[in-house]
Amino acid sequence: MLEKIWYGNRLLALPLLPLSALFGLVSGLRGLAYRTGLKKVHRFDAPVIVVGNLAVGGTGKTPLVIWLCEHLRAQGFRPGIVSRGYGGNASHWPQQVRADSDPVVVGDEAVLLAQRTGCPMCVSPDRPAAVEALLRYSDCDIVVADDGLQHLAMGRDLEIVVVDGRRGLGNGFLLPAGPLREPPGRLRKADLVISSGARWEDVPAMHVVKPRLVPLVPASETRPRPLQALSGRQVHAVAGIGNPQRFFDLLRSHGVEVIPHAFPDHHAFRRMDLWFEPDLPVVMTEKDAVKCRRYGKRNHWVVQIDVQPEPAFIDRLDQLLEELKIGQEAA
């Protein structure tokens, strides 16, 4: 219901505007407290790059974080990652994350990032504590914070904001009348803005490249195949992410006939969630796959993707990274 208000008729949002005004007031006072020193901003021995968004829901941050870590390595950095560990039920925090960590303990996105990047990673609801633990137990010299834009206690040296290229900023209102955690003007304060899936206004975009199918249950005789291998075929598409429609649209754009099965973001999958009639191939996102492998069958597939930002974004990023290097050398 809320998404219809956020991305539909602006008039439907009007009754909620008083609550949005209250949300904005509280958020503004909180930001002022950090800017004036009433609340502490933690600084670290390594630069921190925050990748976040203004709108709730999925905007494509995780693929960008994967690309960014690879790019940082190519520039001579040793990146590490921190995130909240959303959905994890660890009894204590921070938690170091490995490729074989349990997503029930540390969260699904954290395990996915550890698997895809090979970077040291630490998760905690307390982001400064996660950064400090990461630096203490690894040799990384730069930190990528996944989804930390509004965590103002965590000092940062560079901010990247991801905007959904198709949905943009919705109706432009703050929660709950709109999808925004911060006003649209916040984009002007970010170092870099990038849109995902499609170009939004004059913002550089990142595009999905090389979408491929890998078996949910690894098998030595089954190699990755292009997503086009399912073109013209009907499949059950499973997505427990912030914006399931983005995944369904990707499949349809490659000629796949989709029977959609949308679940809540970070859904705790059970075996019965993957039982469908008729018995057709089942495809899912990488984030869902880390929780579903124990239930996998031979006709269950994971859609693995990479993204490629446009040159304007990369050029500006490299310029900012060079400035970070110069600052580190001077320090």
Structure description:
- The chain is α/β, with parallel strands linked by helices and 331 residues long.
- The protein has two domains: 2-27 and 34-204 and 310-330, Rossmann fold; 209-307, no CATH class.
- Helix content is 30%, strand content 22%.
- The protein is built from nine helices and 13 strands.
- The protein has helices at 2-6, 17-35, 61-74, 103-106, 108-117, 127-137, 244-253, 286-292, 311-330; strands spanning 48-52, 79-83, 95-97, 121-123, 142-146, 158-164, 192-196, 205-215, 225-226, 234-239, 257-262, 282-285, 300-309.
- Strands 1, 2, 3, 4, 5, 6, 7, 8, 9, 10, 11, 12 and 13 form a 13-stranded mixed sheet that branches.
- Helix 5 (108-117) packs across helix 8 (286-292).
- The N and C termini lie far apart (51 Å).
- The mean pLDDT is 94.
